[in-house]
Amino acid sequence: MMRLMAPQREHAVCHTAKRVVMRTCGCSRPEGDENLTIAQGLRGRFLFSLTAPRRFDPAGMRHYTRPGPRHNARNDDPGLGGVRAAGYSRHLMVIDAIDVYWVRIPLAFVWKTSYADQHVTDTILVRMQSGPHHAWGESCPPYIPSYSSEHTLGTFHTVREHMAPRIVGRDLRTAQDLLDRIDFVRGNQFARAALEIAWWVLEAKRHGVPLHVALGGKGDAVAVGADFGIQDSLDILMSQIQGAIDAGFPRIKLKFRPGWDLDMVAAVRSTFPDFTFHVDCNAAYTLADVELFRALDRYRLAMIEQPLADDGMSLVSHAELQKRIATPVCIDESGHSLAHVRAAIALGSCKVVNIKMARVGGLAASRAIQALCAEHGIPCWVGGMLESAIGGAICVELATLPNFTYPADIFPSSYFYAHDLGKPEIVLSGRGEVATSRVPGIAQEPDPDLLARWTVEHASFRAKA
Ligand SMILES: [Mg+2]
Q1: Is the per-residue pLDDT at 81 higher than 70?
Q2: What is the Å distance from ligand 1's center to 210 Cα?
């Protein structure tokens, strides 16, 4: 047994007595929150110790989302709640309550990437209520600040201390209304997304439509791919790949790091000469490795995902690499926001973009990025952060937008979890596809018992009656 975190009594005081906050912990509660009564429910908890490989052509990329007859939103339909949807959603939406949960979920196996060997998912769940409606959203930051400078403890802190108090009690009729309230916070995209994503699900439920309809997407199912991390042997990897192909996954992503790189790809391509693969380097290389990436060209990969470090020169470096190799470069870690992707397009840094809804600050930004990329002929796909079924279901809804043309990183719950926090669990609805929501918002909510067992910290915010 391992104690993860002690209760933070001084911060509980912080939120129940504003004047005390300013003296005791220096929190600079932004103006405008005096009309709120914020009840902070912190608790430390004891948790258990946890221990068709054709030449890739972005312009000809197949749209894998299966069209469906149920919802007929036009491709240019902005959906509900967004900046451009003011006419539809200008209905009072006072946020009556927000609950923020930091939850630690054990993985079914050790997930090995170039960053670390990961045993748990550390995620943030938000329950948001307006009138009789409530909704759950999820933003899953990296559990340590390696994929980006953000991580779960920092995300929870930022939402609790700086964002949720400015949201609760407010009339937020569009996603932009919410984003404007927290615009003073720089960076911290996962924290921003935690609240904004919950808002979208709530908005969809208020209007009685599935989330993908609220977002402007359409389709009864989306295509999903298979991912494999670093394995103990090539034989194990080949067996897993064969299983994924047999299960009908349309493409496979292979984690790629020094020591598990060119020889691995050569072996995979030799064994599976006609299947669609791409590699994800998780920013493990520099321009000094350009010959390694030139050597990858012969293996006809769909793309090389985030080959280079996400440093201050990242977009320039990726542009230089893209000039020197034929395989499309895809940015992931370096696409922090709509502005970053706009810069990447201007510089020629990539030919594909992986959009992770939390990394870019939420669903409105995700929607805007895929539309911007479409204008420039750059295909996108939905990436994942090992979310629970709640976040996974939201990713499914996002993937219905028209420029998500490469199968998503959305996984059946049973792949990463012995027990998924979200119910119902994510399952394949067909060969390599997951069904979209048939109910208002999404169908998934956390299992109450698992939420109680795995919650590390919980903060509650209530609007003044
Ligand atoms: Mg990636």
Answers
A1: no
A2: 28
Residue 323 annotated in active site: no
Ligand 1 centre distance from Cα of residue 293 (Å): 16
- The Å distance, Cα 97 to ligand 1 centre, comes to 34
Residue limits of CATH 3.30.390.10 in the chain: 2-51+82-208+449-462
User: What is the DSSP code string of 28-53?
Assistant: -PPTT-TT-B--------EE------
- Report CA(209)–ligand 1 centroid distance (Å): 31
Q: Look up the pTM and report it.
A: 0.82
Please give the average per-residue pLDDT across 46-71, as a whole number: 31
Q: What backbone torsions phi and psi does residue 217 show, to the nearest 5 degrees?
A: -95, 180
Portions of the chain given CATH number 3.20.20.120? 215-443
Q: Which amino acid is at 110?
A: V
Residue 439: which H helix or E strand, with range?
A: none
CATH 3.30.390.10 for domain 2-51+82-208+449-462, yes or no, is yes
Please provide the average confidence, as pLDDT, over all residues in the chain. 84
Q: Which of 205, 218, 253, 356 is catalytic?
A: 356
**What pLDDT is recorded for position 117?**
84
DSSP 159: I
Name the class of domain 215-443: alpha beta
Give the model's pLDDT for residue 145: 87
pLDDT at 249 over 50: yes
Q: State whether residue 100 is helix, strand or coil.
A: strand
How many Å lie between the centroid of ligand 1 and the Cα of residue 306?
A: 6
- Give residue 44's pLDDT: 29
For residues 328 and 381, give the distance between their C-alpha atoms in angstroms, rounded to a whole number.
Answer: 14
Catalytic residue status for 423: no
User: For residue 33, what pLDDT is reported?
Assistant: 38
Q: What is the pLDDT of residue 112?
A: 81
Amino acid at 1: M
**In this structure, are strands 329-331 and 352-355 parallel, antiparallel, or unpaired?**
parallel
**252-255/226-228 β-pairing:** parallel
Round to whole Å and give the CA distance between 357 and 363.
6
Burial of 205 (0-12, 13-18, 19+ CB in 10 A): buried
**205, 255, 323, 464: which one is catalytic?**
255
Which DSSP helix (H) or strand (E) runs through 180?
Answer: helix 175-181
